Amino acid sequence: PTLSPPEIEAVANTARADLARAIAAAQAALPLEPARAVAEPLRDAALAVQDAARAIIEARPLLVVRTLEAPGNLRLLAHRWYGDHARAAELWRLNLGALRAPNRLSAGDRIHAYAR
User: Fold this and answer.
1) Strand, coil or helix: what is 107?
2) Where are the beta strands (DSSP E) in the chain?
3) Parallel, antiparallel, or unpaired: how do β-strands 110-114 and 63-67 relate?
4) Cα atoms found within 13 Å of the Cα of residue 97, Cβ hemisphere only
């Protein structure tokens, strides 16, 4: 629940890249048939990682960009949009690097948020 969709994608891509390196190493070190016996389960694992990441991302609400109608901070914004000020941390994670001053948001600023 603490990772944003791009972070989930990055974790899945890292795992798949590691599996691809393991497949390449097996193919380089082993004859054809033994290498195939090692590579097939690793390919299945890579597909399982991809499917799991997709399922996690799709289980979350839609990520949208919303425009602020009034100035405020992330805690106030979370209360306005969701009725729960504690979701300010979620808004912070979704907008890492995009917010210069999370305690001084202006009307018209565009913020990534979950649709619900």
Assistant:
1) coil
2) 63-67, 110-114
3) antiparallel
4) 0
pTM above 0.70, yes or no: no
Look at residue 105 and give its three-state secondary structure: strand
What Cα–Cα distance (Å) separates residue 57 from each residue in 37, 48, 73, 106? 31, 14, 27, 30
pLDDT band at 114 (very low <50, low <70, confident <90, very high): confident
Do 63 and 5 meet the contact criterion of CB atoms below 8 Å apart? yes
Helix, coil or strand: residue 72? strand
Over the stretch 2-33, which tens digit does the pLDDT of each residue have? 777 888 999 999 999 999 999 999 999 999 99
